[in-house]
Amino acid sequence: MTPSSPPHAPRVASPTRGGLVSLAGVLLIVALVVAGAFMPKWLTFLLTMAASHGLVSLGIVLLMRGGVVSFGQGLVFAVGGYAAALAFNRLGFTDALGLAVAGGVAATVVAAPFAPLLSRYRGIFFAMLTLAMSMVAYGVLVKTSALGGSDGFNMGRPTLFGQALPDARAGHVLYGVTIAFAGVLALLARTYFDSTRGLVTQAVRENELRVEYLGGSVREAMSINFLLAAFAGGSGGALTVMSLGHIDPNFSYWTTSGEFVFVAILAGWQSVLAVFVASTLLEVVRSFSSLYFPNTWQLSLGVFLLLMIRFLPRGIGSLWVDRGAKGDRA
Amino acid sequence: MATALTILIDGLSYASWLFIVALGLTLVFGVLKILNIAHGSFYALGAYAAATFVGWFASMKFAPEWSLVAMLLAAVAVAVLVAPLTERGLMRFFYGRDEVLLVLVTYALFLVLEDVTKLLWGANPYYVSEPYAMFGNVEIGEQVYVGYDFMLMGLAVAVGLAVWWGLNRTRQGKIVLAVIHSEEVAASMGVNVSRVYMLAFGVGVFLAALGGAFTAPLISVQPGVSVGVIIVSFAVVIIGGLGSIEGAAIGALIVGLARSFAVHVMPQAELFSIYIVMALVLMVRPEGLFQRIQARKI
Known about the structure:
heterodimer, A: 330 residues, mainly alpha, two-stranded antiparallel ribbon, 1% strand, B: 298 residues, ABC transporter involved in vitamin B12 uptake, BtuC, 12 helices, globular
């Protein structure tokens, strides 16, 4: 192994630059939501899935900035999804935005007891422990007949601000809610990345011991990142189940988690926008290959993955962020 | 008492093939530093190849005893065909990259191989029943146990000893150990590291395929077998400590017994008993049971 690469100067956001990025972000969100009204149904659905899944991957990117990758984000995804669907079916709570927040809160609450424990682990052990947690959840969900067992259950159509959604527009409205919600979380993530704790997280990635010597708490940073990632993943799960109308234990299966990690790696850890671009790309590849190569879509997905990892090792984000900063681990 | 014995024998038989598979996984990790998700696919390839080979042998009117040879040949065939192709054709382009990225590469390979097995063997299940009945039954007290399970235990011990002997008592094995210890120093002493990689990867694929071939009679060979196996063997090597042979053995025993205990005592916990055990072990020993302590870089 080569000695660790020289730490590059962290990009400190100047107020004007941060403001510009936020403004551009808000404009992009508004443009996407408006454009949704003119999009065909399949496209809005695809983008809804991309944005809601992207939120889970955003959580993984958040963890990646501290040098760990969770292979079990399917857990928070499932918790958020089940919480939203149950709140809808059992409690009669139907507001789409409220359900998205509820999903995030539920996932955070479930993740909270594990956060201090997991903050001790790194690398492959962190990945495997999170994987184990999600698979335990999968096992429990499959065996819980009250939640439909391995078949899962259906959920009705949510409302928005007390208004029922008409059949013709429901897809578009849920698209708008998902894009707006994901967009706001993405902007918050950008702000967090550039905050003091966000920069401490990046320092942990470079060298933990140094952070401790300088008076920072590595474990606290890692715990908080884990909880924030859980919130993002949970709300992503809630948004997904609202548009799908169905949930089953596969939300927590390891291949689901694998796709989230894939999107995170594809995006790279530098850019928030890249997460959603990567997520969209995955959805596009998935739907087109299942349309045109129904029997070999996993094969096409695998080949696509390999090509991306081979030729864009630092992720899509590296196409437009820090072109000069060589030597970073991908 | 009878239940305890049944749990023990079921657990040991499960642990046997699991040990063979996990040994391959841990060896590949030790040498190449890759946690190989596609290991499960190699297992599946072994099982499918065994189904095909046993079928061929049967259609050529060989005596049933030859089906054991057929299974062994199937594992060899998978190793000889698949290992060089994946290691030379794919993995070597990614060496030295981040650990987690490498896991993703093998995940992609896993996806590809899933479809390749479906293309080659179709989606219908295969059954390899001949070898299973061959070893008859063993009566212990009131209970009757299947002889094949005991054969598996013997095979696992033999494979474990062979790998231990190969690593510790042969020149080539010592070279492999040197590469595990420090690739850089080994290379500067004139070791051809990429050849060692190929060798270790080949042995790893062989062990996965061997495990698959010899469990084929116990299961129905169908799409999806790879997924279950890889997750369980991950648990085994994590419990034992990555890259450790003793660890793989102990890990396989722990997982095998935990699973068979769950199956007999608390069937609803079967699916996740393994992960609970793994989480418990990691809480006490964060790096697994047999991991060497590594110095931290400041």
